[in-house]
Write a structure and sequence with these properties.
By secondary structure, the protein is of the alpha/beta class. The protein is built from 7 helices and 6 strands. Helix 1 packs antiparallel against helix 5 and helix 2 crosses helix 5. It is globular, with a radius of gyration of 16 Å.
């Protein structure tokens, strides 16, 4: 049996695999409200070029993406669609919640139709606060996520131990 089948990868190989995964994130955008404009500024503006960080922002479907950015107000009607698209993404998959509406409902938290945070639907890796958050905050969130990916131990996932929430660890909150 090989090293991968035994789940005993040498540290240099683990480092190389994590390094290549962190600089080849295919991002699926889920812009729901005004935060989507700031996300678009981070994606399309030459000042905040995400491609230099290794983030490819235009996959054709969630089946090709490994990072989803939820930005804006998540309503109860939209929640099943977000969950379905997250389930279609291949493992390992990562989630960034961008803006106060996606984080906790924002100024609409007491509305009957607003979900009180996207973390009630799917597990979130990085929270980017703000109303709306600046593109720099999204870039910082991606850099912090890349640091987490670099330090992951993929052998736990390959063995199938635990759940996806166990592999994630504590969520990261970007300081703005």
């Amino acid at each position: 049996m090989g090293l991968v089948e035994n789940h005993k990868l040498p540290k240099p190989l683990t480092w190389l695999l994590n390094y290549s995964r962190k600089y080849s994130l295919w991002m699926f955008q889920w812009g729901l409200a005004c935060c989507a404009i700031e996300m678009g500024a981070a994606l399309a503006s030459p000042r905040y070029d995400m491609m230099r960080l290794g983030v490819i922002p235009f996959p054709a479907s969630p089946r090709q993406a490994d990072l989803v950015v939820i930005s804006g107000t998540v309503t109860d009607k939209m929640a099943p669609s977000i969950r379905r698209l997250w389930e279609q993404m291949p493992d390992p998959k990562y989630v960034i919640s961008m803006g106060s509406c996606a984080n906790c409902g924002g100024p609409y938290w007491d509305s009957y139709s607003v979900t009180k945070g996207v973390d009630q639907i799917i597990p979130v890796d990085v929270y980017v606060p703000g109303c709306p958050p600046r593109p720099e905050a999204l870039l910082e969130g991606i850099v912090l996520l890349q640091q987490r990916i670099q330090n992951e131990d993929m052998s736990e996932r390959w063995r199938g131990e635990g759940t996806a929430e166990r592999w994630r660890g504590e969520p990261i909150v970007v300081n703005t």
